[in-house]
Amino acid sequence: MTWVGHYNYWGAIFLMMSGFYVVISRGNLIKKLIGLNIFSTSVFLLYISMGKIKGATAPILTEAARLSPTPQLYSNPLPHVLILTAIVVGVATTAVGLALTVRINERYGTIEEDEIRAKDDSL
Fold first, then answer.
1. Calpha distance 119→58 (Å, rounded)
2. Where does 3-122 sit in CATH, by number?
3. What's the CA gap between 52 and 12, in Å, rounded?
4. Which residue, 50, 33, 53, is CA-closest to 100?
5. Structural contact between residues 21 and 82, judged by C-beta atoms closer than 8 angstroms
């Protein structure tokens, strides 16, 4: 298979680098959280892409599959289950990040990183 056939991996890499760029280049804390969410979404897509096997089915054993003389090819369900857990953790982390951003805004009156540093240095 050529590199074009792995479009899902290229998409995940593009999203990962886009999220990483947003985290590094932006000074706004909300934009940094959005960049982190884009980055984590790319990791989810990467793991789900690796968990799928072409021509394989879900690992549900039926009587017909058990009695079949040819071996059945199954996909691994573990990456999908781990991604569900990671999504929940990502949502919780985003909620904590947003709560901290609200508190920072109440304390400093801004959510721009440069202005926060300037106010912190003047104290």
1. 56
2. 1.10.287.3510
3. 15
4. 33
5. no
In terms of Cβ atoms closer than 10 Å to its own Cβ (0-12, 13-18, 19+), residue 32 is buried
Q: What predicted TM-score, i.e. pTM, was given to this entire model?
A: 0.82
Q: Under a CB-based contact definition with an 8 Å cutoff, are residues 49 and 8 in contact?
A: yes
Instruction: Tell me the DSSP string of 3-68.
Output: GGGGHHHHHHHHHHHHHHHHHHH--BHHHHHHHHHHHHHHHHHHHHHHH--TT-B-S---HHHHH-
What residue segments make up the domains of the chain, in order of their start? 3-122
**What's at 50, amino acid-wise?**
M
pLDDT in tens, the chain (123 residues): 576 667 888 999 999 999 999 999 999 999 999 999 999 999 999 988 887 778 887 788 778 777 778 777 888 888 888 999 999 999 999 999 999 999 999 999 999 999 999 999 987
The CA distance from 57 to 78, in Å, is 14
Q: Considering only CA atoms, which of 46, 42, 38, 39 is closest in space to residue 80?
A: 46
